[in-house]
Amino acid sequence: MIELLTIPEKEYQQLNKRLEEYQAERKELEERYRTRSKELTKEIHEIQDRIARDKRIRERRGPEYMQYRNEKIIEMHENGTSHEDLAKEFKIAVSTVKHVIERYYTFRYIRMLKTHLKQTDGIVNDSLSINALLWHKTRQAQALKNMNVVTVGDYYKMKTQGKISDSIRECVEHEIEMAPKRHAVDKKWEQERERYNFYYGQ
């Protein structure tokens, strides 16, 4: 019988074994490459985004710069920098500086009021900041601030001493009466949003 095998059986088996090992190793390397490639791609995109964001801030453009500028304005304002100096620093009008600061405190006081009413189920107690209660009545809030009235409790003390004008008293009492109604509206809106999120998965 003619011998057709050109490779001895033992060597043939060794070659098959080595082939399987190499193929398995290659598959493992490809998998590791794909995993590492995904990791690097993610890192690259994050770095590119940070560089692009920083570039827009350096060039004083885009929403990132506006957010950065506004945050710095608030920080510097709270450290005592005047409106005029802030306007020079950021090369904007004094009115813009005032608008940024007023907008920041308005939203801050709205959050304070909502948080307070959520904790007290719509009841205004003595610890609430007058600025939060009168967030949209800045003139009256400033008048009370000038009298060292910081909280609702302070207001009641001054009221008993007869040091509060009728117009300011009416304003504060109206806001205290309206607080439960506003809280009820906020609560209903929040429930509606939760129901929407439940049904639509947003």
The gross shape turns out to be elongated
What does the average pLDDT come to? 89
- Series of H and E elements: HHHHHHHH
What is the terminal separation in angstroms? Answer: 77 Å
Tell me the number of helical segments per DSSP (H or I, 4 or more residues long). Answer: 8
> Helix content range of the residues, please?
over 70%
Beta percentage is under 5%
Main sheet makeup? none
In the predicted model, the low-confidence regions spanning at least 5 consecutive residues are none
| Class based on secondary structure composition and strand pairing | mainly alpha
Task: Work out the number of β strands.
Answer: 0
**Rg, nearest Å:** 34 Å
Layout of helices and strands, plus pairs?
Elements (H helix, E strand, L loop, with lengths): L8 H50 L3 H17 L4 H8 L3 H27 L9 H4 L4 H9 L5 H9 L5 H35 L2
